[in-house]
From TrEMBL:
Protein name: Appr-1-p processing protein
Database matches in Pfam families: Macro
Coiled coil: none
Domain of life the protein comes from: Bacteria
Residue ranges of domain Macro in the record: 1-142
Upper lineage: Bacteria, Bacillati, Actinomycetota, Actinomycetes, Mycobacteriales
Family matches, as InterPro entries: Macro_dom (IPR002589), Macro_dom-like (IPR043472)
Length: 286
């Protein structure tokens, strides 16, 4: 908080000496790693600067919870101020050398789960590589949220709901069909909810982003899916799907049941081309 290098230095150079004066006055001993606090924005086109101290990966500070705390504490400070929008750099991903892919995932996962009154959060990429990684992670996280909605439907007792994920013929987009068990294999577009990552937020007549809860996704599925009724009669499939989702969430990758040239003899794959396999789903009771 003394105008050093990286984003900190850039903020102080752009905002002028008022920011440094406020930093020294409000935080004479600085802040602990993972904590956050606010100052004036000086000459910046903003009302406040929320300062946070990221862990220095290059110096051995590799506790991911500290990185997550930066985003969580920053949104808490924003709420204390009544802020409605906030922009973040990728904390610790610059001179502190936190691995880019994990830095992106920590940012998106933590902000998506934050209990905050902030309406708009922007993640600002420093270069095209970071920008591409951010867009990819947001796309994957949105698709995972839809699958989490299927799990939430199962938890409500709708055991016959199925998700069939795969890759488009072009290999550019992941897609999933959500239907009831009796419609598996039926060539009828009205018998299922279809989603593709090419559709971005559009799902089941609504919009889904990483900030939408699985329960809200479950509501969309139940409102849209035809011939759906609570049965609670297939705990084996529900358990299988829960195990699949645990693997998806840990790996942060999407499941694949089919694709051009895909060999499914060893089950579904979590992450296109990853080699991580999950067994085929069990047969449903008649």
């Amino acid at each position: 908080m003394r105008g050093g290098g990286g984003v900190d230095g850039a903020i102080h150079r752009a905002g002028g000496p008022a920011i440094l004066r406020d930093c020294v006055e409000r935080f004479p001993s600085g802040l602990a790693t993972g904590d956050a606090g606010w100052t004036t924005a000086g000459d910046l086109p903003a009302r406040w600067v929320v300062h946070t101290v990221g862990p220095n990966y290059a110096a051995g500070q590799r506790d991911r919870s500290l990185l997550e705390s930066c985003y969580r504490r920053a949104t808490e400070v924003a709420d204390e101020l009544g802020a409605r929008s906030i922009a973040f750099p990728l904390i610790s991903a610059g001179v502190y050398r936190w691995p880019l892919r994990d830095a992106v995932r920590a940012a998106i996962d933590t902000l998506a789960a934050a209990d905050t009154q902030v309406d708009e959060v922007r993640l600002v990429a420093y270069d095209p590589t970071a920008h591409t990684e951010l867009l990819t992670r947001i796309t994957v996280s949105t698709a995972i949220r839809i699958l989490q909605g299927v799990r939430a439907v199962h938890d409500r007792g709708y055991h016959r709901v199925r998700a069939l994920p795969g890759m488009s013929a072009s290999g550019l987009h992941w897609r999933v069909a959500i239907m009831t068990a009796n419609n598996l294999g039926v060539v009828n577009p009205d018998a299922a909810i279809h989603y593709s990552t090419g559709a971005l937020k559009q799902f089941a007549g609504g919009k889904v982003t990483v900030t939408v809860s699985p329960q809200t996704v479950a509501d969309l599925i139940m409102e849209t899916l035809p011939e759906n009724a609570p049965t609670s009669d297939d705990p084996e499939y529900v358990s299988w799907f829960a195990d699949l989702m645990q693997l998806v969430e840990v790996e942060g990758m999407l499941p694949i049941a089919y694709a051009d040239g895909f060999d499914d003899s060893d089950g579904w794959e979590v992450g296109w081309g990853s080699g991580i396999r999950h067994p085929h789903p069990p047969l449903s009771p008649r």
